[in-house]
């Protein structure tokens, strides 16, 4: 199978793509794959999930269902991911038997464990915050306070992260799971880069972006492209991110989250082996979106241009506090009067506080004006639910 995709004479008009995961990332990936004429099958346990609404076939199954995972891979020329929390054991068997699965299940398995991920990057000379494995309560105090405790497995969208500010926090707030600690970095900005790498090793980086967070739940709130940083910082961020993906030997799209410290150092926070929230702006603002780029990468097509056509700001639309149930979009008419605004709603049937329900992207020649327009829209648009909670 791998050799067939390396062959430029492969008949791409009949290519069958499998996507593990049916959320918003899978939905936009599927839309881009359909634009290219590919047949798309998705695997997800939720009926009428976002990606199922735009795909050719939906295999109803969980991400740890070996039988359904094997069915997806067997029915696809290439299988890829929109999430990392998946059973890799059956996927490794299939990969070792010649099936095209990218990123490889071995890369996915490594990235699933944030401690092992950090350890590999550190061993490869990639700058990361100081860290330590936690075997006892004493280990949580090794760097003094404050310190960041992270679960090794399962963390997502701010879950599995705890800031410990005192010995009392260690006793009352510490995560009761396999974990490690990191020093509390003195952060100037949180940055990110989307890095693409195809089967032949071709690499392309998107612009460095700046991420702003909703501190209530530690979820990325807004993304500014390009980041407001110096040329020197930009070049170092690109270098570090490129070296990170080479160290992983990954194929696909990777969201590399970075810290810019107050002293001007770039450090890798963590890596997502899939399209990333920090790359949503690429749909409107770049020559090739991250969602088309992953299709190109895993099917060994030439990578597309990552040129930034216009500065952009992306804002996540989260479920409003105090509401859940069937979603209702409040303010869409007024928001769409804002020039150069694009509205994305993911088609999730149920909203709850802080759930990612959609996003907007606003373009402008001036990044600061784009931010003003995006914040105006953010104050207008609200995703409410049918029930108050």
From TrEMBL:
ATP binds at residues 114, 150, 182-185, 190, 269-270. GO terms for cellular component: cytosol. It is an enzyme of class 6 (ligase). GO terms for biological process: 'de novo' IMP biosynthetic process. It catalyses: 5-amino-1-(5-phospho-beta-D-ribosyl)imidazole + hydrogencarbonate + ATP = 5-carboxyamino-1-(5-phospho-D-ribosyl)imidazole + ADP + phosphate + 2 H(+). Keywords: ATP-binding, Decarboxylase, Ligase, Lyase, Nucleotide-binding, Purine biosynthesis. Belongs to the PurK/PurT family. NCBIfam families: PRK06019.1-5 (NF004679), purK (TIGR01161). Catalyzes the ATP-dependent conversion of 5-aminoimidazole ribonucleotide (AIR) and HCO(3)- to N5-carboxyaminoimidazole ribonucleotide (N5-CAIR). This is N5-carboxyaminoimidazole ribonucleotide synthase. The gene is purK.
């Amino acid at each position: 199978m791998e050799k067939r995709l390396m062959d430029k004479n492969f008949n791409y008009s009949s290519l069958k793509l499998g996507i593990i995961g049916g959320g918003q990332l899978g939905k936009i990936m599927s839309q881009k794959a359909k634009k290219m004429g590919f047949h798309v099958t998705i695997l997800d346990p939720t009926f009428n999930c976002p990606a199922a609404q735009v795909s050719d076939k939906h295999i109803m199954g969980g991400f740890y269902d070996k039988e359904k995972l094997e069915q997806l891979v067997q029915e696809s020329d290439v299988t890829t991911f929109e999430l990392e929390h998946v059973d890799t054991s059956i996927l490794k068997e299939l990969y070792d038997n010649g099936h095209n699965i990218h990123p490889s299940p071995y890369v996915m398995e490594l990235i699933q464990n944030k401690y092992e991920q950090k350890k590999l990057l550190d061993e490869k000379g990639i700058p990361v915050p100081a860290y330590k494995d936690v075997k006892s309560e004493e280990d949580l105090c090794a760097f003094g306070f404050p310190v960041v405790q992270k679960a090794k497995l399962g963390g997502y969208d701010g879950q599995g992260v705890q800031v410990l500010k005192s010995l009392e926090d260690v006793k009352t707030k510490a995560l009761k799971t396999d974990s490690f600690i990191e020093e509390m970095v003195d952060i100037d900005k949180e940055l990110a880069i989307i890095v693409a790498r195809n089967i032949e090793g071709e690499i392309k980086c998107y612009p460095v972006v700046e991420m702003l967070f909703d501190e209530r739940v530690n979820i990325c709130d807004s993304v500014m492209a390009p980041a407001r940083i110096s040329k020197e910082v930009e070049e170092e961020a690109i270098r570090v991110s490129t070296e990170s993906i080479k160290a992983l030997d990954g194929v696909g799209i990777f969201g590399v989250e970075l810290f810019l410290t107050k002293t001007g150092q770039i450090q890798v926070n963590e890596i997502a082996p899939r399209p990333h929230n920090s790359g949503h702006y690429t749909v409107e603002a770049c020559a090739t979106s991250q969602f088309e780029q992953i299709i190109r990468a895993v099917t060994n097509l030439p990578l597309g241009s990552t040129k930034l056509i216009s500065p952009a700001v992306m804002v996540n639309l989260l479920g409003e506090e105090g509401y859940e149930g069937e979603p209702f979009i409040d303010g869409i008419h007024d928001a769409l009067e804002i020039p150069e605004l694009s509205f994305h709603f993911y088609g999730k049937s149920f909203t709850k506080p802080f759930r990612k329900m959609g996003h907007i992207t606003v373009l402008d020649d001036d990044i600061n004006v784009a931010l003003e327009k995006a914040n105006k829209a953010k104050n207008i648009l609200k995703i409410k639910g049918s029930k108050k909670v």
